[in-house]
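Troubleshooting: if your tokenizer reports a length mismatch, compare your output against this known-good record of 181 residues.
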Amino acid sequence: MGFDRWKRVNSQIVFHERYIRVRKDDLESPLGEQTDYVYLEDEIPGTVSIVAHLEDGRFLLVYQYRYPVQSKQYNLPGGVIDPGETIQEAARRELQEETGYTAGEWIYAGMYHPMPSHHTRRAHLFVAKDLTRGEQHLDPFEDIHVELFTFQELTDKIINNEITDMELIFGLLLCKQKGLI
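Known-good structure output:
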């Protein structure tokens, strides 16, 4: 008896701020059982993440403080797709802003849902190659450091729980398995 056969009895926005809404749906099962389901809805077109791969085999990661988990985290470069922007335009902009690098080659690796149990977000993954270093153009509230790692170093950090960001882990695994890196 999956949720795909449940009936939505009521739906309301319980909180709304900037890019996101918190929605609460009241559901009824095919057997008449009732429950609610609370989840996040995006108002943005989605997000992009970039696996930036240097010719020497190393990868660019961004290192920054993430307030919700109260710790510094390694992440893939990326961010919000602005309204009217294509996913590739967003990827190019985010890579350049966060790392200072531009890429001569872009490969689309696919779309994914980062947290489909509680969020409607659609995220897009790219591989960037033929990288040229330039200057970061950070937003006033960003404090991002760029660090370079080999695939083995990243694997070790994942195994040792030094990297816990699932988008980073997923992105590396998907791109490796597809033969893109």
